[in-house]
Specification:
The protein is α/β, with parallel strands linked by helices. The protein is built from 13 helices and twelve strands. A six-stranded parallel beta sheet has the order 2-1-3-4-5-11, covered by helices on one side. A six-stranded mixed beta sheet has the order 7-6-8-9-10-12, sandwiched between helices. Strand 9, helix 12 and strand 10 form a beta-alpha-beta unit. It is elongated, with a radius of gyration of 23 Å. The chain starts with a helix and ends in a 5-residue tail after the last strand. About 2% of the residues have low confidence.
């Protein structure tokens, strides 16, 4: 097992310098970024893991374990509530005496919190809804505490999420079973990592199952209720549109329902609609008509995230683990 002396030797610095960097005091002691990078790269190469348990024991009388939950400030704050509820419930279930801190950030700018992420002031970090640029930034760093990503993939960090290919096939198979041979898609104009992957997975599944999705039948719109309304209006202007629609967001789907109602289109008689659902289940269950959805298992993901962090913090384990939680199809009136 690698020691702090091995890290110091490989990176060409003193043991004291390595210790300062590990304890998040590099900026305070005016240690250069290049030196920090060399030390972090050496730690990663050697698989060195600082003794987080010993550090916690030194401070356990004055400070609880702190878990930071990083979540972006955009329309997805509406999804945050469902995760928070499940996180708190599992913390209570485990009798895990910790502090949960919500740290909002702007997508593509997670690097602005570099000092917090590398400072080791947290016992564990949870990152949700990160962009590709944010993921690239995280992969270039070596936080010395457990870090878990929600609905993202990573070689360096633990992940908990759904299989996007499964989501795409769940939707496409329903279209095939109903006898549809063509479909339309309502998708976010500036799609985020997960929504983009799910839409691509659906399009791939359609290509494998003999369902045609023409480029003119893919409607891109803002990932908002009003965006969904505009997409539905554009769809209704087509002379002979497909009779079934896949939405990559329940937010878009709600806007589409509003427009279809005002334009006199009946669901599912005139057009069927199926959407990926990230909001609370009651939101899509009580629309008119109620929405058929591929339900994202936010509550189960939240539970598994806390279980994973609890285990890694308790056992001083930074090795990445990957947990896949199955999505589920809920058939309702819109399809």
């Amino acid at each position: 097992m690698a020691t702090i002396k091995d890290v110091a030797k490989l990176s060409g610095v003193s043991v004291t310098t390595v210790s300062i960097i590990i304890n998040g005091k590099a900026e305070e002691r005016k240690i250069s970024d290049s030196t920090c990078r060399k030390v972090l790269e050496a730690m990663r190469e050697l698989g060195y893991q600082p003794n987080l348990s010993a550090r916690r024991l030194r401070y356990q009388e004055s400070k609880k374990p702190v878990i930071a939950f990083f979540w972006p400030i955009d329309y997805r704050t509406s999804i945050l509530a469902s995760f928070l509820n499940s996180l708190q419930l599992e913390i209570k279930h485990l009798n895990f005496d910790c502090e949960l801190v919500i740290q909002t950030y702007e997508n593509d700018h997670l690097d602005q919190y570099d000092a917090l992420i590398l400072k080791n002031g947290y016992s564990g970090i949870l990152v949700g809804a990160s962009s590709q640029l944010d993921l690239t930034y995280l992969e270039s760093r070596s936080p010395q505490m457990p870090l878990v990503l929600i609905n993202r993939t990573s070689e360096h960090f633990s992940t908990v999420g759904v299989d996007n290919q499964e989501v795409g096939f769940l939707a496409a198979r329903q279209f095939q079973q109903k006898g549809y041979t063509e479909a339309a898609v309502f998708t976010a104009m500036h799609s985020y990592v997960a929504t983009g992957q799910r839409t691509q997975a659906f399009l791939y599944a359609c290509s494998q199952l003999g369902i045609n999705v023409m480029a003119d039948h893919i409607f891109k719109c803002p990932n908002t209720i009003s965006g969904g309304s505009h997409a539905a209006k554009a769809y209704c202007q087509l002379d002979n549109p497909p009779k079934v629609i896949f939405c990559d967001s329940d937010t878009i789907a709600i806007g589409a329902l509003y427009a279809f109602h005002h334009l006199g289109r009946q669901l599912p008689e005139d057009v069927g609609l199926l959407t990926v659902a990230m909001l609370e289940p009651e939101v899509t269950a009580y629309t008119i008509p109620s929405l058929t959805v591929v339900e994202m298992p936010n509550h189960e993901i939240g539970k598994r995230v806390i279980d994973l962090l609890y285990d890694k913090i308790t056992n001083n384990n930074l090795e990445p683990e990957h947990i896949t939680v199955p999505a589920s199809l809920v058939l309702r009136d819109s399809f």
